[in-house]
Amino acid sequence: MDIALRVPELVHSHELRFHINKMPRLSSQFLQTHRELRLAHLALSVMTMGYNWQEGENNTVEILPRNLALPYWEVSQRLGLPPILTHADVVLANWRKKDPEG
User: Fold this and answer.
1) Quick check: 90 pLDDT over 80?
2) Where are the domains of the chain?
3) Any idea which GO molecular function terms this record carries (predicted)?
4) Alpha helices (runs of H) in the chain, residue ranges in sequence order
5) Could you tell me the pTM of the whole model?
6) How many Å apart are CA 57 and CA 13, to the nearest integer?
7) CA separation for the pair 39, 45 (Å, rounded)
8) How far is it, in rounded angstroms, from Cα 8 to Cα 79?
């Protein structure tokens, strides 16, 4: 989540790929609830898109590092979603009430 929350900053500084390449292999086995899985899918989706597009359309990647690709695939499989940034990630699962009581 530390990297996912910093994707815009890390893409802008051209450091996202470096940080993702050095992160440990993540495991989805500890994610228990649907909410945890949806958050993981959103975070991994944003990280993947940033990783791919960090240098613009002329320097995209063809292969993701295993430490990003494998947990993304695992979480996607568990949710029945494709391993891409989806409308379900960006809109349907990415909201909260402005007023928790309302």
Assistant:
1) no
2) 38-52+64-94
3) heme binding; indoleamine 2,3-dioxygenase activity; L-tryptophan 2,3-dioxygenase activity; metal ion binding
4) 2-5, 7-12, 16-22, 34-53, 66-79, 87
5) 0.85
6) 16
7) 10
8) 26
Token pair of 32, please? 């228990």
Residue with tokens 């979480």: 75
* Tokens encoding 10: 């890390």
Please count the residues of the chain. 102
Type of residue found at 53: W
Which CA distances in Å does 72 have to 13, 18, 67, 101? 24, 18, 9, 34
| pLDDT over 70 (residue 93) | no
88 neighbors 57 (Cβ within 8 angstroms): no
What are the backbone dihedrals phi and psi of residue 53, each rounded to the nearest 5 degrees, phi first?
Answer: -100, 5
